[in-house]
TrEMBL record:
Protein known as: Enoyl-CoA delta isomerase 1, mitochondrial
Catalytic activity: (3Z)-dodecenoyl-CoA = (2E)-dodecenoyl-CoA; (3Z)-octenoyl-CoA = (2E)-octenoyl-CoA; (2E)-tetradecenoyl-CoA = (3Z)-tetradecenoyl-CoA; (3Z)-decenoyl-CoA = (2E)-decenoyl-CoA
Key words, A-Z: Acetylation, Fatty acid metabolism, Isomerase, Lipid metabolism, Mitochondrion, Transit peptide
GO BP term, example: fatty acid beta-oxidation
Gene Ontology terms: cellular component: mitochondrial matrix
UniProt key word Transit peptide: yes
Molecular functions (GO terms): delta(3)-delta(2)-enoyl-CoA isomerase activity
Organism the protein comes from: Drosophila yakuba
Location in or out of the cell: Mitochondrion matrix
Function: Key enzyme of fatty acid beta-oxidation. Able to isomerize both 3-cis (3Z) and 3-trans (3E) double bonds into the 2-trans (2E) form in a range of enoyl-CoA species, with a preference for (3Z)-enoyl-CoAs over (3E)-enoyl-CoAs. The catalytic efficiency of this enzyme is not affected by the fatty acyl chain length.
The protein's annotated pathway: Lipid metabolism; fatty acid beta-oxidation
First-listed, main subcellular location of the protein, grouped into a coarse class: mitochondrion
Subunit structure: Homotrimer.
PANTHER family reported for this sequence: ENOYL-COA DELTA ISOMERASE 1, MITOCHONDRIAL (PTHR11941:SF45), ENOYL-COA HYDRATASE-RELATED (PTHR11941)
Length: 281
């Protein structure tokens, strides 16, 4: 009896491992030569940030932190989308428990990426609205391929970006630019993003974007890693601490807001518009 229980537990553990491999929504590849890890999001069709993708992102960031990589490059397996931002289906007519877990996981993933001790860069190889822009601006450097768009478009959906979304944006853009863009819900083309400083460089392909991210991370080769990481932490400490201190209030505020009938109606209309557009293509 005891033995069969143990065997069934072992079998279940083995199948869980297989399941987690089969459903992995991110991959981490460490380059032997450079020691830099490339973290690739892979949730077709648009890398919508749902609970599971956020969980995988967080555990991949933890993996990179733990495996002594020299840096982290965030990118996407799609040829046209970096990330479409939060999966609106998580917020539209939400399940009570799941939406709590979803937002809590988003907070955790942001804390891990924005506060990462290793140098981070985003190879933005496709559109990057809202939550996609949040991921990109949480990194220290951004290289983007032409003919795509990036920005925090929340006001266009009738929703409000939380303070920590703004903090990431403000770590990249001057206050005046950030405030105007957020109020407008403005999406920038690659060229506009470069001009305003939302991205650091452009590249003609994903491969070139990754090469440029590698070169950025290489600029720290001769800098003491602990000194570099503690300096980064000091720059970001206030933003990180603010969310740490207000996590529960931030969650309750989100839940209150997302459950407002007007917000639900707006999300429904927005989703419908996306679906109609997709059908026409
Ligand atoms: C409420 C309280 C406060 C919350 C504060 C935080 C809030 C928000 C942060 C967010 O991230 S909200 C999400 C914002 N994202 C967007 O507005 C992007 C919307 N998507 C697009 O603009 C386009 O899809 C795209 C990314 C430019 C890609 O265009 P493409 O033509 O390649 O693909 P589509 O045909 O449009 O889409 C394919 C397929 O995916 C569905 N989809 C797209 N984006 C999302 C999404 N964010 N969530 C869920 N689903 C999405 C789209 O409907 C299509 O579905 P099907 O019709 O094929 O079923």
């Amino acid at each position: 009896m005891m033995r069969s229980k143990v065997l069934s537990l072992v079998a279940r553990a083995a199948s869980n491992r297989m399941m987690s491999t089969a459903t992995k929504l991110t991959t981490v590849e460490v380059n032997d030569k450079t020691g830099i890890a490339t973290l690739t999001m892979n949730r077709p069709p648009v890398n919508g940030l749902n609970l599971e993708l956020l969980q995988d992102l967080k555990s991949s960031i933890d993996e990179v932190e733990g495996n002594k990589s020299r840096g982290l490059i965030l990118t996407s397996s799609s040829s046209t989308i970096f990330s479409a931002g939060l999966d609106i289906l998580e917020m539209y007519k939400p399940d009570k428990d799941r939406i709590r877990a979803f937002w809590t996981q988003l907070q955790e993933t942001w804390l891990a990426l924005y506060g990462s001790s290793v140098p981070t860069a985003a190879a933005i190889n496709g559109h990057s609205p809202a939550g996609g822009c949040l991921l990109a601006t949480s990194c220290e450097y951004r290289v983007m391929v032409p003919n795509f768009t990036i920005g925090l478009n929340e006001t266009q959906l009738g929703i409000v970006a939380p303070k920590w979304f703004m903090a990431s944006f403000l770590s990249v853009l001057p206050q005046r630019e950030a405030e105007r863009a957020l109020n407008q819900g403005r999406m920038f083309t690659t060229e506009e993003a470069l001009k305003v400083g939302l991205i650091d460089e452009t590249a003609n392909s994903k491969e070139e974007a990754i090469e440029k991210c590698v070169a950025f991370i290489g600029t720290f080769a001769k800098v003491n890693p602990l000194a570099r990481s503690l300096t980064k932490q000091q720059f970001r400490a206030a933003d990180l601490q603010q969310l740490q201190n207000e996590r529960q209030q931030d969650l309750e505020k989100f839940l209150f807001f997302v459950n407002q009938p007007a917000v639900q109606k707006g999300l429904g209309i927005y989703l419908e518009g996306l679906k109609k557009k997709a059908k026409k293509q």
